[in-house]
Specification:
Layout (H helix, E strand, L loop, with lengths): L2 E5 L1 H10 L6 H10 L4 E5 L9 H10 L4 E5 L3 H10 L3 E4 L19 H13 L3 E6 L3 H10 L3 E5 L1 H4 L3 H20 L3 E5 L7 H7 L4 E4 L1 H23 L2
Parallel strand pairs: 1-2, 1-8, 2-3, 3-4, 4-5, 5-6, 6-7, 7-8
Length: 237
């Protein structure tokens, strides 16, 4: 059975757009767990544009599944992660101007930095995942450097036109099979939604998919009716 990790970053994005405490990403994580989420995912960016340090600590204190903390290899965020001690971190590339993560972490060209970080986290008893492009050299290097898990970047598949879906699935399936042969746990994520998830899993039966934006977007519409009705009832309208 494929597990589902739910990323709650964009609940925090809405909160931060106006300030204050609503909507609360921790409450969103608890609701996701109640609906069957197998884990919660959040990305503590260097600029703290959505998830903030107190959110990480509250999530660790209150959720009942497990937390995967996405992070770049910056000293600031590494120190926060080591202090928070989540069950697992996921190394991702990060560029300040990007709207969302744009590609996989380059394990080959940044092997020294990654090896140092993996050792620090493993020594602290924290599991390490690396978000990578579905490329054999990246899979092998992540394994060589000591990662427990890889997450395959599904963005190119998710955004492919009909002529590219097949080749992108081929790349993902090849990387998945190599990861399994090397003893890595293989996950997938980025851009996955209600229209493309089944097509992926029919070919690439990863252990877990991590999905955020499409779930939060769908929740706006599946939940707005009950939210309006509740307010009308409370206000006696």
């Amino acid at each position: 059975m494929v597990l589902l990790g739910v990323n709650i970053d964009h609940v925090a994005t809405v909160r931060n757009a106006r300030g204050g405490t609503e909507p609360d990403p921790v409450a969103a994580a608890l609701a996701a767990e109640a609906a069957g989420a197998d884990s919660i995912v959040c990305h503590l960016r260097e600029d703290r544009r959505h998830i903030r340090d107190p959110d990480v600590h509250e999530l660790l204190r209150r959720i009942s599944t497990s937390l995967q903390l996405e992070m770049a290899l910056s000293d600031d965020v590494i120190n926060v992660a080591l202090k928070a001690n989540p069950p697992e971190i996921m190394v991702v590339p990060e560029r300040r101007a990007e709207l969302t993560t744009e590609g996989g972490f380059d394990c080959v060209n940044h092997a020294s930095r990654l090896a140092d970080a993996i050792k620090r986290f493993r020594d602290a008893g924290i599991g390490v995942s690396v978000f990578i492009d579905p490329d054999a050299s990246q899979v092998r290097k992540a394994h060589e450097l000591g990662a427990h898990t890889i997450e395959l970047h599904t963005g190119p598949y998710s955004h492919a036109d009909t002529t590219r879906i097949g080749p992108e699935l081929d790349r993902l399936e090849t990387a998945y099979r190599l990861g399994c042969e090397l003893g890595l746990e293989v996950h997938a994520g980025h851009g996955l939604n209600y229209g493309n998830i089944r097509g992926l899993l029919q070919r690439v039966p990863v252990a877990k998919v991590n999905i955020g934006h499409s779930i939060i977007s769908r929740a706006v519409f599946t939940g707005i009716g009950s939210a309006v009705a509740e307010m009308k009832a409370l206000a006696g309208l």
